[in-house]
Every structure is written in structure tokens, then in C-alpha cells.
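Q: What would this chain look like folded?
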Amino acid sequence: MATIAPEAQETTATEKCPARDMRKTGFDTSTSEQPVVQTEDGIWHIYGYDEVRQVLRNDLAYQGGFRIEDLVNSTGGVLKNLPILYIDGPEHNRLRRETNKFFTPSITDREYREFMDEFADELIGNLKKRGRVNLSDLSMDMAVKVASQIVGLTNSVLPGFKGRLNAMLETGNLPEDAPKWKSMFLGQWNVLQFLLMDVLPAIRARRKNPQNDVISYLIDRDYSAFEILTECTVYGVAGMVTTREFIAVALWHLLENPHLAQRMRVGSQEERYAILHEILRLEPVVGKLQRRATEDLVIETEGQTVTIPKGSKLDLHVSVSNTDERVFGENSNAVCPMRPLSERKPKVAEFALSFGDGPHRCPGAFVAIQESDIFLRKLLAIDTLRIEREPDVTYSEIAKGYELRNFIVAVD
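A: My prediction, written as C-alpha cells:
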């Protein structure tokens, strides 16, 4: 666990663990006296940290979220290669080993730090010129630019890549009572634009000149254009949208807690990352993960074992498990970078389960933290930065977590 610099401990330590709920986005208000509960609809709900981590690390619990059933059914067998996010077992593990090279800390630091710095400076410069900006848009610009470099979506034939990506995501968040024809038409239209304007140009460019990016890797593995499109769509959600939300919620916390903002300005990287990890623990962008049991699952909980039958659906309540007092102690709903963690094996990550765990742990975790750190430090370096309008907090059905919109920040 990172520690706060000695010169700051005396003035800030007592402020770091207030006895109040500091969470701003918690949609999952489910509660249970038991860490593992089955409801009348047959779904198993897992709330405890240890219990959720057991499921995530179990080879018999396969991916069941992010609308996997919709994807498989809608493609009608067209996809020979499913997106890595939706694959399980040995094939998934092999693909993860091969693609992790794009996201390692050393690669991220060597290949992308300078790029992140320069683009963040450009965005900050625009903010200073305009005087006010919608942070929801600004953070999306940052997240899209970084992820598109890593994925390889850098050859769009027309401007508007961010808008086309957003359009696809908004289709997935249409109200439940929206006509099916509307969602189907909009979905196909938005995907077609993304394919023609962004994905196909990137494929053509990399067939001629391969790069060290995800699309070049997929081409080398003989993925079809439709399969690459699907993979890029998944990366759009996982690598761009989630980071966008985290940057916004982190700045919200930092501007309301000056002692943390100050440590972000002057602290070491270890200290800054500890602060960001703690905010992410409290505000996981993906608030609930879903799994399905391919065989009977045996879960240890509070000295007993619970057997979850084969075929069961499981809801893993990450936003609840991340505040499990058995692990994170008292005041687990507060932002407390110095909080002591209980001794557990394997070691408890400072960000808890916000990046998942096990085979499907988010590969871009270090990328997200590094770009957030760079961008937030540059924002906080503006002495007159202030919140002009707090964001609207809504729920994303796709990510099972929060979305922050209309978040206006200004400089005097």
C-alpha cells in the first residue's frame, strides 16, 4: 500500500477517513446480511469481496455479462472468432497472453506516455481558451485518443470518430419501451457508419503497413472485417467509455477534497496512484459483473460452503463488494488512500475488484490509471479550475454502472 508523504500526514491523515458516505454514483443499493443469496428468479447474488473474487477466479464461471447472449444471437453464427471479452477457457487464456503485450506497464510508459502528455496539453489549452467546458466531452476526447492509438483506429476517412462511437453506445441504452424496429435500425446504421468510416480504413492501412496495435494483431490472425469490427466495438466500451467516466468522477472527488487534490499535484507516482485506486475502489465504473456456471460452483463463505448449481446465472455486485468492511475496514464508503487492508491471500488490490479479477481482469488497467493521472494532474495545475455545474448521474445498462453527463468545469 502506498503511503502519503510525511510532510502531508499531519495535516491530512484525519481528513482522509471521514465517517460518512462519500460515494457519488452508487446505483447498486442491494443489501443482504449474507454474502451469497439466491433470489426467487433463480439468480445468485454475490455481495462479499472474498466471495466475488472466488467466482471471478473460478474456471467454471464463464462470462455472462455485457449482453453476450445478444451478440451471439444477433450475429447468427457469422463470427468465427468471438471478441476476447466473450471467450472463456484455454482459448481465452491464450489470446490474453498474446494481446497483453499492448497493455503492459512498460509498453504503456514507453510507447504512450509522451503521446498522452502532448494530447492532454492540447485539451487543457483548449479549456483555458474557452474558459468553460463539458468535462464529459473533454474526458471522452482523452480516452478515445489514447485507446484508438492502442487499438489502431487512427485512419478515419472523416472526422467524428468520437460521435460515431457514442452513437453506437447510446443505441444500447435506449429505453426498454422503445420500439424494437427503432433500436434495430439505429443500431445497424450506427455500426455501418463505424465500419465504413473508421474500421475498414484502419484495416486497409494496416494490411499495407502493420503496426504494433490490436488491429494489426487481428489481421495477422486472419480475423474477418466483421470480426475486427466487433472487437473494436468491445474495446470502444472497455477502453474508452470506462476511462472517460473514471476521469470525470475522480476530478469531482478531487475538487471537493482539496487535500487530495494537493497530493495529486505534488505527490509521487506511487502516492497519486494510491489516491486514484482508492477513488476507483469506491466508484467502480462497472458496478456489477455477471457470470454463468458451466458446472456446479462451490463457494466458501463465512466458514461454510455454498454450492451453486450448473447453469445458474450469477450477479456479482462489485460496487458492494468493494466496500466490504471485513476487508476494507470501517468507513469503507469514504475515500481513504491510507486505509489499512486486511491480510488476505492472494493480496487485496488497492482498487479492489474495480478492474475485475481472474482470467477476465481488465488488461488496460495500467493504461487507464496512467492516462487518468496525466490528465488529472494537468487539470489540477490550473489554480482557478472550479465546478460550475455538477454532473447528471445516470445508469448505463451495458456497463452496469454510472454515466456522468453535463459536467461543466470552468477557469476564471
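The first helix runs from residue 6 to 12.
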